[in-house]
What does this fold into?
Amino acid sequence: MSLQVVTANRLDDGLVVFLTADGGWSENIDQARVADGKEAGNALLAEASVPELDIIIVGPYLIEVEQQDGGLVPTKYREILRTKGPSVRQDLGYQAG
Amino acid sequence: MYRYDDFDRQLVLERTEQFREQVERRLSGDITEEQFRPLRLMNGVYLQLHAYMLRVAVPYGTLRADQLRQLGYIARRYDKGYGHFTTRQNIQYNWPKLDEIPDALLDLAKVEMHAIQTSGNCIRNTTTDQYAGAAADEIEDPRPYCELIRQWSTFHPEFTYLPRKFKVAVTGSANDRAAVKVHDIGLRMHHNDAGEVGFEVIVGGGLGRTPFVGKTVRDFIGKNDLFSYLEAILRVYNRFGRRDNKYKARFKILVHEIGIEEVQRLVEEEWNLIKDGSLRVDDAEIAHYIEQFAPPAFETLTDDDAEFERRKAENREFANWVRSNVIAHKQPGYAIANVSLKPIGGIPGDATDTQMELVADLSDQYSFGDVRVTHEQNLVLPHVKKADLFSLWAELKNANLATANLGYVSDIICCPGLDYCALATARSIPLSQRISERFSDLDRQHDIGELKIKISGCINACGHHHVGHIGILGLDKRGKEFYQITLGGDASENAEIGKIAGAGFSEAEVVDAIESLVTKYLGIRETGERFIDTYRRVGMDPFKEVLYGDR
Amino acid sequence: MAIVKNDSVIDQEWITVDIEGDLPAGEENIIVPLARFKEERETLIGRNGGLGVQLNSGDAPEDLADDLDRLSIITVNFPAYTDGRGYSYARVLRERFGFKGELRAIGDVLRDQILYMHRCGFDAYELKNDDDVSLTKVRAALKEMTVYYQPTGDGRATAASLREQRRAAIKTAS
Ligand code: HEM
Ligand code: SF4
It folds into this structure.
């Protein structure tokens, strides 16, 4: 079992975004489309890597996530930081609310 | 201080417009990210974990008050109210939006600043001694030469697509405060036998994943010949540096692989063919630049000031600050005041918009509008009358900028690490905060004396951990952050790469580990010895033992 | 594909023959890689028809020093725009050996590098775009900057020399 979502940075403001079910990009990981397993993950990434998206996002890649309390949480600490903001400035980034 | 003339101004404005157009081409899809990336990097724009990052050049670490004030404004207008001063004497903003960066660059251009060549495989911002033009131990102010290097290296048509980045550092003093031996080219000013002033040329130093202390390629190059000599070195590097492997592309690897003698042969051969060409800079031209950096209008004072002495005697806190943060000036009655950006538990090198504005105002008031950025991530007011030090200190203290810890255990160099950096393997800032808090007692810090801790969040070594007396490298071990300790590094004229002490520590353990090293040192030091001196005398073993026991 | 030289699009009048390809029998103008030139120098310079050499990254322009007056064109191949060796080759050819023929940048030649190429001595650029786009790009690139700090062989006045002139003018005026 490995759940994955696609993340990237938005081209114009650089902020962290996730590929959503309707093919858009959201700042909220909980709205991300989840792929289960390697094959589904690669398909999702392929969808996010088409040239047309080059003017919307930069550098899409897959990250592993887990379901936790009804939300999605990345398994890697680096990616948790990306969903929140710097751990040393909890007043900044998405965690600032 | 150097002021732009219309040529410099025009060049920066043209560059700003050029980048605005490149950003437009990118946003409209005219160029791809792959094509845009090197263009944005050449203008100091990275993409980091949370957002874009803009790195602004502070050429040779010298700022005017109006420039620092503008940096504060930019922090507020385009960022989230702060900036991060780096080991490269630059400032980084962590949250600018790509579509606003051209405006930020235009605002920088208004105060004669830019982000040119703060990234990319080109010649980067030249760094130097933060006390240039003020230090009592200086042979000559290195900044006129740094400015000439800045101009020579800016948009150098031949050297904009080098194998890898290229860093030049210059020291005008025998006491090297610019870490010249760990740069691609280090220039050390000295006298030759004829009594002329020139430069020793050191090449192939560097940190990163394969650290090297640089080697001397030429004992002495005269001032007039410096620029053709630099061009010869760069041409050799551009032609022969490795391009097959990014990790072996730095100049240091070429120097290591073909040897300093061969590098010397190639450089001298090239130089002999170009030395009489148009890069020879004559004395008259150099004199124009020396004039630009002429000392400010110092008053004629006696060196000791009764009021200053009285304040020191009365106020222990002030006296401690003077002891650690104030340094001898070449002009009698003046001193160099260091502004610590390392408050206990703070983020090393970060300054808020209002702090920048305050330091700008204080420099206007007390230091001829001159401010410096240090590679140790602090600020400096280089020309303060001793009689003014007390009022300066009081104002700095109000803004949490007067921590009396320069060179001490809490004056930690620290890269952004995993909190910001896309390349990081571990966080570095929280660690520096925990260490700083552990040693929060300033009396204890003063007792420990000079101890340079340097922390990097990955092997790229932006936090100079290889040359920390105690270096800490953050790594990732199966998803957990852990930290490797090196000992005995030194960035000074006695440059040395630290040695790995042994297995790494978890975040929870590492602060204790540092404390045990310090305790050991205190137990065995001889009179007058700094940590690094004791380490050199006794070697690794006693320290290893306190870290690992029988482990 | 278009070649831009002297503010206009020019025809491709050269056939590039690779390291082992057959040499054309007639009087065609040919360009051969440096390696082949070194190997078959006598044959090549004895041939009728124009001769040019292609430099690839890692080649030594010094190898052509004695033959430059036999060559009408040298192409310098940029395998990737990030490989900047060709800039040094161009300066060495122009400034050290005084090569007067056409110096053409080929390979990964993009708009944003053209000004640097020109400053290093290139006078022709082979772009992957069509004629109009290529010409527009080269024109735009060449006028993007007007201040130059480094003396190269391109004849542009440097900021330092203009400052010097200005100081001299002020001196004579006073
Ligand atoms: C946050 C974004 C940053 C990125 C992506 C980055 C990237 C890198 C990389 C890849 C290297 C290794 C280069 C090599 O060895 O070839 C490096 C080295 C270095 N960087 Fe950074 N860096 C960043 C921030 C900083 C900061 C904040 C500082 C100053 C505090 C800094 C100063 C340096 C220094 C001094 C070196 C090592 C010296 C050398 O070039 O050998 N960098 N950086
Ligand atoms: S050392 Fe590593 S983690 Fe730290 S700033 Fe440099 S690249 Fe980032």
Notes: The beta strands of chain C are 2-5, 8-10, 15-16, 30-33, 51-55, 73-78, 102-107, 124-127. The helical segments of chain C are 34-39, 41-46, 85-96, 111-120, 131-142, 159-173. The radius of gyration of chain C is 18 Å. The longest strand of chain C covers residues 73-78.
